[in-house]
Write a structure and sequence with these properties.
mainly alpha; two-stranded antiparallel ribbon; 9 helices; 7 strands; about 65% helix
């Protein structure tokens, strides 16, 4: 149990890391909040698939694989830059119930495995990634409260209005960095959500996410006392700055080219293409059929293929028989002569 207070706001909370137990196994709030974040992000993403011209059935495979990739990537990233804490006890690498997930590793893992699945399932990657970053902002905003329960991801000493103290914090009051990042992600989600219909090209939301989150994380990371380091550098702060600057340059370059070309068909949004419209039409027709109709159509198609194969085989047999008869007649004519 931990007590967390915001003295200037007159707020105090008594926190238990354990949300509930199942058959003697403690389920941590950290895991519960991340799961809730995933669930809401998936629900939002599926509800917006048509806006981006995507078939939700195919996209769901990429989402599920992306989630697995995100969790694995987040853990690998955290362990890689905290190796001193794990090298003597490798079993701890697989213990994530109380934290130890790094968001940048999660993003890399999710986009990598999700992107591969998109290729396999023939889902357009850039529109899918645009939806993904909206879901990421939701998941990050909710997941950060797992840090609150664990009393982690806080910053240096401060006398600001939001200064946080706790029995687990020696230098309090401190900056509640988890709160700053959660609010930053909520605002970012609202802005990108409102911008969806104004986007000029697929992948634009990805670049805007990189600029928004990169800028915010760069500033917030500078306040934290538990940063992952690579030598004297805060890994996430440097990475945030690089991502933000790179995304800004790419975004300005593409927008400039769109304006210079002055062509409505230059880099068209996938949702406006004939391919997307046809895909959504077929998906809609499939959804309108009930399971019995779907099974009947599949059986009919299978029977049709079987009949077609049988007809081809029968035709081949007749042609072979005719050819043999002709050869026999030729032999007979030769013998007569």
């Amino acid at each position: 149990m931990n007590t967390v207070a915001f003295p200037h706001l007159g707020l105090e909370f008594t926190l238990n890391k354990v949300a509930f137990s199942v058959f003697g196994l403690d389920i941590m709030w950290y895991a519960v909040l991340i799961t809730i974040g995933f669930a809401i992000a998936i629900g939002y993403g599926l509800s917006r698939m048509k806006t981006f011209g995507l078939d939700s059935d195919r996209a769901m495979d990429a989402i599920l694989v992306g989630i697995v990739g995100g969790i694995v990537g987040a853990r690998i990233y955290f362990v890689a830059f905290s190796w001193e804490s794990y090298k003597d006890n490798l079993a701890l690498i697989f213990s994530t119930r109380e934290g130890g997930l790094a968001i940048y590793g999660g993003i890399i893992g999710a986009l990598l495995l999700g992107g591969i699945t998109c290729k396999i399932r023939k889902v357009k990657i850039l529109p899918m990634f645009d939806i993904t970053v909206l879901g990421l902002l939701i998941g990050q905003a909710i997941g950060r409260w797992g840090n609150f329960v664990n009393v982690e991801a806080y910053g240096s000493h401060t006398e600001s209005l939001f200064g946080m103290t706790s029995s687990a914090i020696i230098d309090g009051p401190v900056h509640p960095c988890f709160l700053y990042e959660s609010v930053w992600c909520i605002v970012g989600f609202i802005l990108l959500h409102l911008y969806v219909k104004r986007r000029k090209f697929d992948g634009e939301l990805v670049l805007m996410y990189c600029m928004w989150y990169g800028f915010g994380r760069m500033l917030i990371e500078g306040l934290r006392t538990d940063s992952l380091y690579w030598g004297p550098f805060r890994v996430s702060q440097i990475l945030s700055a690089v991502i933000m600057i790179a995304a800004l340059i790419i975004w300005l370059t593409i927008r400039s080219r769109i304006k210079r070309n002055n062509d409505p068909d230059y880099l068209p949004l996938y949702v406006t293409t004939q391919e997307s419209k046809e895909l959504l039409r077929l998906a809609e027709e499939k959804n309108q059929r009930n399971p019995k109709e779907e099974a009947f159509l599949e059986n009919t198609m299978e029977e049709g293929v079987e009949k077609l194969d049988a007809q081809k085989l029968q035709k081949m047999n007749l042609e072979e028989e005719q050819l043999l008869n002709e050869e026999g007649e030729h032999r007979q004519d030769g013998e007569d002569h």
